[in-house]
Amino acid sequence: MVNSTQTPLASPTIDPLRGSMAEFARPSGPDLIARTAGIVPYIAARTAASVWPFARVITSAPVTTVHCEVADGSVRSGLNFGSQDYLSLAAHPAVHEAAIRAIRDYGVHTASSAALQGCTDQSRALERDLADLLAMEHVVLFPTGWGAAYGAVTGLVRPDDHVVLDRLAHASLQAGAAAATQNVSYTEHLNVDAIRRVLTGIRAKDAVNGILVISEGLFSMDSDSPDLHAIQVVCREFQATFLVDVAHDLGALGPGGTGHLGASGILGGIDIVMGAFSKTFASNGGFVATNHPGVRAYVAAYGGPHMFSNALSPVQIAVVRETVRIVRSDEGDRRRGALMEAVSILRSALGDAGLTCLGDPSPIVPVLIGRSPLARLACSSFMRRGLFANLVEFPAVGVRAARFRLQVQADHTPAQAREAAAIVVDAVAEAKSLIAATEQA
Ligand SMILES: Cc1ncc(COP(=O)(O)O)c(C=O)c1O
């Protein structure tokens, strides 16, 4: 937060509005510890200027209004558009009850990997719940969504195989691909023809090794979705396997919460589906789903974190079971309706004020700002005004493609959506005039 004695543009040595974390990503020198030192003044300069909006701390459940402590130590209360709890289930009384019952019945810890003795009868029940939701045969659970993505790729892909990813695929999928093989290609975002071209090139040279094509049901930086059916068809043509990550859309969108898969009429028809519980299902954890028992066995045995990390806790399993139940119920439909109403109000209000909301209506509303200095100052301003939302800047997105990512919840009221939009609009205007004044000085 900006304090009264310091303008955000003032900094003695490092300009807190310039530079990015990309500059520190590949340090060099023989001493692994010594070479980390350079990043500290950079973060300190941004923190001192109130333009380091990361690592915030809240003092309650991630509901629609929170008390929030930002990195510079100042505490504000305000509207929470910075948590991923799309159907507002993290504080749902029935979900809490399920968690408490699980502690009574199973304790707090599974005390083993899922590959050994870390599953309870409830873990098996959750696998069945998810298989039903996705209309697929087999489900493998993972301790995190990150682990499910990494495990799905590394469980199946070997060094001579190929991985083809949408260039905006999540870091966990990219990490899995990089760990599995050096034959990794990236295609233009959402472009099915680009996938076809890459597959044609690979198959012209290599008819004997496998190809895994990876995309997402809803991309979280741009709030857009690919043509899943078309990609699956292209994959079949080239004997490639299609994996889709539904972390952001499953539960929150689509008929009965079936996400983009259900909305596209392709539920149960994609080779491999993986997802995370952390956006809609109120818990850490993830899964891989498939119709093929061999894929299930490979992902479980060779997909790292399923075997080599402790299984989901009884509480996490119970929470996800209860949230899946709500997602599939009439209440789930009502919550998705309320969510999309708030999304629509937010997007319209921002658009009417001349701001650009990227992509399609979804729980994620990316507001394109452009240059990082403007985005950093505006972000600082909206937090000071009582709105908490996320800044996304280079290298997570392109150099001049900084944006805010507002994450909407079913419990956000229309009035809160309108207020959030008004705060963003005022904050951007304030930041623009601050920059204009600095340039003129
Ligand atoms: C598309 C996607 N996949 C996987 C993950 C990892 O999930 P988790 O944070 O639950 O480990 C995320 C989380 O940000 C994500 O956005």
Give structural notes.
The protein is α/β, with parallel strands linked by helices and 441 residues long. The chain has 14 helices and 15 strands. A hairpin with a 5-residue loop joins β2 (65-69) and β3. The longest helix has 27 residues, at 414-440. The two termini are 23 Å apart. Pyridoxal-5'-phosphate binds next to α4.
Short précis:
With 441 residues, the protein is an alpha/beta fold. Helix content is 41%, strand content 15%.
Task: Draw up the topology in text.
Elements lengths: L38 H10 L8 E2 L6 E5 L5 E6 L12 H14 L14 H14 L3 E5 L2 H12 L5 E5 L4 H10 L3 E4 L4 H14 L5 E6 L11 H10 L3 E5 L13 H5 L8 E5 L9 E5 L2 H10 L2 H4 L5 H15 L1 H23 L3 E2 L6 E7 L1 H13 L2 E2 L1 E3 L9 E6 L6 H27 L1
Parallel strand pairs: 3-13, 5-6, 5-7, 7-8, 8-9
Antiparallel strand pairs: 1-2, 2-3, 4-10, 9-10, 11-12, 12-15, 14-15
Helix pairs in contact: 2-11, 3-11, 4-5, 4-9, 6-7, 11-12, 12-14, 13-14
